[in-house]
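Preliminary data (for renewal application), magnesium ion complex.
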Amino acid sequence: MKTKMTSNNRLKIRAVALDLDGVVYEGDHVIKGAAKTIGSLRDKGIDVYFVTNNSGKKRASIVNKLNQMGIESTLDQIITSGYAAAVLVNSLCRTQQYRICIIGSEELAEEIIQFNRNIVDEPPAEILVVGLDKAFNYERLSSGLIALRQGAIFVACNRDRTFPVGNNHVLPGCGPIVAALEWAGGKEADHVVGKPNTMMLELIADKHGLKPDEILVVGDSIESDIVMADNYGSPSVLVTNNLEAANTDTISDFRISSLNHLPQVFLED
Ligand SMILES: [Mg+2]
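Predicted structure:
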């Protein structure tokens, strides 16, 4: 275990930002000991937030999923890239009645609708939001391209190539859909709200009055979770099955094999 984190800045940690897939659950299966670990963090007065690039599910669905796994949570504790996109779109609109075209799931649309914004099925639109869309097809690609050619602001939830579905299987993520729109439109997304960008951590910090070094990021992906922590100036813990291989070149402060071991990292001496 690397010990970049000194006992001094250990004391600063007031909140933990947990990645979900691969850390708290794997597909529909809770990771053994996750509920107990989260409970013991909370017992010590550490706030626990769940930070995921998942743009297909709304926060309320993730609350339900966690609650069914024996992990109590509230909407306030869940930040998804879909929710972050909704917050950003809301701030881009300000007082304007911008039309918003969405390539993504019904639940992504529901996150944006909560802000009473003007969602349209087809262009013309002033904002194009792209998330994970399991019904993505040529027609949707065409709609997105029309919006981009009209000058729509391009908001992408994340660039994840794949997402895990358990048993070592993965499916194509939001990233390939974003890439298709970028390639067709000949321009990069104007905003990418998900990891490794820091918007989701900023939302937590701003709302709860936390500083970057008071939030410990825990995740299983170096390129999304650990790079996000590094970009924001937060300490991080990499969850990995391969502690040896990860020892050499990760920028994380600590490495653990499972969430079970998290309390030992900073709650105990
Ligand atoms: Mg993960």
